[in-house]
Predict the structure of Protein GUCD1 isoform B.
Amino acid sequence: MWPICLLFNKILKAGDERELKGDNLNVIDPYLFQQPSSNIDSHPPSLRRSHFFEVPHINQIYTWDCGLACVLMVLKTIGVNNCDIPTLAELCRTTSIWTVDLAYLLQRFAVAFSYFTVTFGANPNYCIESFYKEELPNDLVRVDLLFQKAMEAGIDIQCRSISAEEISILILSGKYVAIALVDHNKLSHVLQDVPVPGVFSNNSGYTGHYVLICGYDAGADMFEIRDPGSSK
């Protein structure tokens, strides 16, 4: 059975002091995941204790295409092998990639997914963050239009938060992987790995970066990820 993809927008707050370990995320305390779910039991007995999808690791090529690399990892996992990052970039027609752009790519390749976000459209408040400041004025109209046309295009966007517990249960079901937008600076402090040369700046503020969450171990309370900006 092919996994269903989940999209999460901006999940790690830069100010979160809780620890991330190894090649995994052992805690996700996100911008999105602020409200606990009341209708999902904590690791129901029927769920396995751990599950990991075999996902090929694909490195990003440029500074801006980590999201495209994550989409490509999903496509390779479900057997779509006639695609590459330049092809996905051509379909997007922009180098300023937002999560909604990834949603349209997944929809184009008939991948079943749900998109969770607490902001419907481009949040103008992001302009205070240097990572967004340069591109945001140009992106506001384009991104808002993509959101407005999403329902007509058959894209499932759920404007709500989702807890880390919900993510773990979905992954343990063996049916889901997730593309998540995180703060790369926070991630890089704890992942002992070799970054891809030349893809990250020295910006000390929030730096948006997409990763693919492809597994979870309930015993260790850790998420397995594939980071397109690192060696694995």
In short: Strands lie at 4-8, 24-25, 50-52, 113-117, 157-159, 176-183, 208-217, 222-226.
